[in-house]
Amino acid sequence: MIATNSSALPLEQVVAAIVSVLPLRFDTLENRPVYAALFTLFRTQPQSLMPHIDHLLQAFAYVLLDASNESDTTSETKAELQALVEHLKTEIPDKVAAAGFQ
After folding, report:
1. What angle separates helix 75-91 from helix 31-44, to the nearest 10 degrees?
2. What CA–CA distance (Å, rounded) separates 25 from 37?
3. Which residues contact 98 (CB under 8 A, 6 or more apart)?
């Protein structure tokens, strides 16, 4: 629904609910669709995610920087997540560095 018609959603509440459960630790099969929705929002409505950026960066670090979580999501999702982190380094470098990204 986020990808197809986010204007029909109470987006602020939906984003807060999604972000509050990240990183997904128990039902990791859901990582792919959850991150796909976040990628869509970063491309189309990044302002909706900025209030949650610190928590999102911690979730991204959990997926990308902790080797024990290597199998939690697909290599495609990780690649897109890494590209997003690289982009965020240009926008908010201090916050990205504070999350543990070099």
Report:
1. 30
2. 18
3. 54, 57
Residues 6+ apart with CB under 8 A from 20: 55
pTM: 0.89
Domain spans, the chain? 2-98
The Cα 1–Cα 24 span in angstroms is 19
Packed helices 53-65 and 11-20: angle between N→C axes, nearest 10 degrees? 40
Q: DSSP assignment of 52-80, as one string? A: GHHHHHHHHHHHHH-GGGGGGS-HHHHHH
**From residue 65, how far is each of 8, 9, 45, 46, 59 by CA, in Å?**
35, 32, 26, 23, 10
For residue range 44-69, list pLDDT tens digits in order: 999 999 999 999 999 999 999 998 88
Residue tagged 């991204």 (tokens): 60
